[in-house]
């Protein structure tokens, strides 16, 4: 799917922005860059520097005289736009756009163009009216003009997420949370018994006046979902603590235990 | 909600990136920028130029000597991270992070820090281990390093969408999970110091041979998101434990301390 997506930049005036767009595209797995009548050099110290290793996209970029030429082979063309223009047009959010891409990209030969305008003035009405739909990135109403590469970054990010969702085994990030087996219920209960015994030994807890102490500690640890290895550490701490408490008990410092 | 979010940049070396971050933040409606030990001038021709009208964020940015100081008052701290580190940590996608924000920002006094590292080397393991969770932006595996401002743009965009969703829906009641204020970052760091001191006192921990002990304990407690009252209990346990250890040290059972 990602190889069916083309980023089209019209009338860009800063080489740094073109480089930053190349970097954002390559980060998100896009590679097809088309430039319409750029108002600056494309291969330039600034664009190479900002591309930060994605400069092959700059070298491979095709230069076109007008939008028509850049999107001639595309089956779905979407223009980035500020809010509503004089003539209302089908408008999608970046997320809605991305959700449509898997089906837009399915037919063989299909190709999607995502078109971004000039830094100072965006796309003209004539250009917008050559698009199937417009995409608008939600912004602060008082400060709505995104940097060109930032706009491409947001749209390309949504495209990547939509593509990841189509992969049968989307990489799961949340599974990174643990590197060991979670403790079982029985392990945890043994831990709570050990904890209570230790708290009594260090004279922090009086089972005759329990208040909410053990309940609060249970809630805390059950919320944390400890792993086996973490529980082993916690029990090791309890054992070391008990050892200190036992030594204290056998010393004259604490004669009550001899009575 | 957006006014509860702080963007923290650590060790940034290019003024242009700081300016571009300010622009991305203001575009998305964020305004609280904190800079930790910047390795460049903050108010600079390049940063002003790239901020493109959002330079009040640069002038209002607070400069801190270290991460501790920048997030001391925060109740939820999330660090931007590449994929796996030696010790896996709770990991969320930008979207999962954003979906958590409305409830994270609901309690009065809550404040969320989104922490981004150096252009060349990201966040250190020590910095990452001060975070409740890590956020990873899905990228091309062969070219995974996003520009700093691009990373902030993506995360801030997701924050804005999550905020917009709260504007159109009935405000969601937060879960019953907590009945007290969450501990702040500074409270937790004091707890970790106290914990380490106590583990040394009971001879469970040798700072000369740290292994992963403190990192694993940090991960466990940061994952649990302790409340103030829970942290008070945990610190009470440490104090009681220290008292036992101190009594042991003054007895003939342990003559080494008299040498």
Automatic annotation (TrEMBL), chains A, B:
Q: What is its EC number?
A: 2.1.1.200
Q: Record's family?
A: Belongs to the class IV-like SAM-binding methyltransferase superfamily. RNA methyltransferase TrmH family.
* Stretches assigned to the tRNA/rRNA methyltransferase SpoU type domain: 5-157
Which organism does this record belong to?
A: Vreelandella azerica
Q: Indicate where this protein resides in the cell.
A: Cytoplasm
What is the protein's quaternary organization?
Homodimer.
Q: Which GO terms describe its biological process?
A: tRNA nucleoside ribose methylation
What's the chief localization of this chain?
Answer: cytoplasm
What keywords are assigned to this protein? Cytoplasm, Methyltransferase, S-adenosyl-L-methionine, Transferase, tRNA processing
Q: What class of enzyme is it?
A: transferase
Q: Which GO CC annotations does the UniProt entry carry?
A: cytosol
Enumerate the catalysed reactions.
Answer: cytidine(32) in tRNA + S-adenosyl-L-methionine = 2'-O-methylcytidine(32) in tRNA + S-adenosyl-L-homocysteine + H(+); uridine(32) in tRNA + S-adenosyl-L-methionine = 2'-O-methyluridine(32) in tRNA + S-adenosyl-L-homocysteine + H(+)
| Known role | Catalyzes the formation of 2'O-methylated cytidine (Cm32) or 2'O-methylated uridine (Um32) at position 32 in tRNA.
**What name is this protein filed under?**
tRNA (cytidine/uridine-2'-O-)-methyltransferase TrmJ
- A GO molecular-function annotation: tRNA (cytidine(32)/uridine(32)-2'-O)-methyltransferase activity
